[in-house]
Amino acid sequence: MADIMMTDRLAAERAPALKRFARGDAIFRWITRLAAYFVLLVLGGIIFTLVEGSIPTFQKFGLGFFVSDAWNPVKGEYGAFVAIYGTLVTSIIAMLIAVPVGVGVAIFLTELCPLNLRRPIGVAIELLAGIPSIIYGMWGFFVLRPILQDFEQNYLVPAFQDIPVLNTLFAGPASGYGMLTAGIILAIMILPFIAAVTRDVFMTVPPVLKEAAYGIGCTTKEVVTKVVLPFSRVGVLGGIMLALGRALGETMAVTFVVGNSHRFSASLLQPSTTISASIASEFGEAKDELLSTLFTLGLMLFVITFIVLAIARLMLMQMNKRAGS
Amino acid sequence: MRFSTLLQAAAFAVVASIAPAQAADISGAGATFPYPIYAKWAEAYKKETGNGLNYQAIGSGGGIKQITARTVTFGASDIPQTPAELEKIGNAVQWPMVMGGIVPVVNLDGVKANEMVLDGDTLAKIYLGEVKTWDDAAIKKLNPSLKLPSTAIIVIARSDGSGTTYNFTNYLSKVSATAKDKIGNAASVQWPVGLGAKGNDGVANNVKQTKGAIGYVETAYAKQNNLTSTKMVNKNGKTVEANAASVQAAAANADWAHAEGFNLLITDQPGDGAWPISASTFIIMAKEAKDPAASAEALKFFAWAYKNGDKLADELDYVAMPANVKDLVMKSWSSIKGADGKSVVN
Predict the structure, then answer these.
(1) For A87-226, where are the E strands, in sequence order?
(2) What residues in B contact A140, CB-CB < 8 Å?
């Protein structure tokens, strides 16, 4: 009986404290919940602003906006074709260079590199991935572009001028500003990114698989191409898509060297533009139709990157599932 | 105890943040071209009177947007507004504040500043893509003594909307019918050739870094960046350099008195010494002052700049307005009135 009274008293003493804890927990829960909802609110707000800003463009130009290469502020005629084309072509050039090199770096790091070199190179790659894009842009503008201008003028254009297709793709006059330079800068930017993700994915390959392969007499090349790559294929693709997402949206580095011109040219050496470069260089003074046009370009970039990143996430999720099983 | 100190600190912070606002900083926004001189004037003015100027160099278009929304006391633009446009801004008045020149700059090995000569027609043809290489007959004819390479001309223009482009294309339209038809006259145009760079400093940088390039910038930017300026053949057929004297000569013939709302461009002016691509930069203010005290303060600053700012302008390669234009402008200020219908200047 005394015991029960004791517990009752204890419980009565504890009750306010417990209540306080519960209240604290509730407050904490609500703060974090609001933070999470806030992200959704921001995302929704951005989508709403982009869509609202784009309506005048769609009303005026309709779907022809996407295939028209006009960009005439005097007459108020705009089309998105050159910006979309420039965005895709610069990203494709970047992927063509960065994917083989980046995957190569990852293979070297995980399979071939001496152990004491592995860490320094790995850290260097992570540092490279963290360099702000404006630095790449400045380097591209002051160092790479003049070199490329020389190279293109003296070697590239003369070398290809009699070969069909290539003489269109590399038609002069070369200024060093254009999709090729932008693509190369982008490649350098996303290379460490691809290398880092791919290395992490390669690490998930169970050592027992590789050891078994070596055990039956496989060469390193065979282990990489027949065991490591097939096992981690989906993850590597996911990493590449993440890098592609970054390349598509990259602004400053591209604006420096792409030439910012809305004139269509099949030549990779001619000035062009990308979606993000157009927005960056024209938004400040834009009004009326141009402003709405830039909003529409922004919406398109949003949609394109969203799709690419969604695919990347899906692939990486699949990869994780497999690694977990 | 701790709480009360916190409260005191907060109260102090609030008071401190209100206090500077009472000193009535003048707020303005707009063109980047006059920013260096406005900043210099503001610094000197603050030293003399204690009143500061808060000027945001966000571009002419932005300046017009902000004065339309009345978020600033004055807007600044390199593009004079037509009476109809001033009406759109909402019963506004504009006047020219200071002038400058726009100069073609090139990057060619062995060619120094003011060695190359261009005329309006050739300049237009370069920007139309009709003159493609530096050894073209049109350029050779104007520069018989220069050794010109056979490399391609890399044409650089502004990628953003700009008052500089507006004045530059205005000049091209005046001297070339083809340019008027194919390029037009606007703050942002579709160039048939070349590449784009953002801002006066962007064009200056691109020309400096690119061999075989040509661009156009305000004279101050050409000087600061050590760019190779070219001479131009003016309306009278005389070859002139871009400098304060030649811009002044271009302004001498401008008939400000008969230009309604000071809507006047000074490109391609007659006169033996006149620089052909001269430009003025404008201030725009609301006639019905939202805050009469602020408007009066702003006008005091502009009057001060007209009276004391010429030397500073000259140091930065800007050209002050002629005295008779200043008088005309200051008379026009009586149209800026408070809610009581009284002029804010006394």
Answers:
(1) none
(2) none
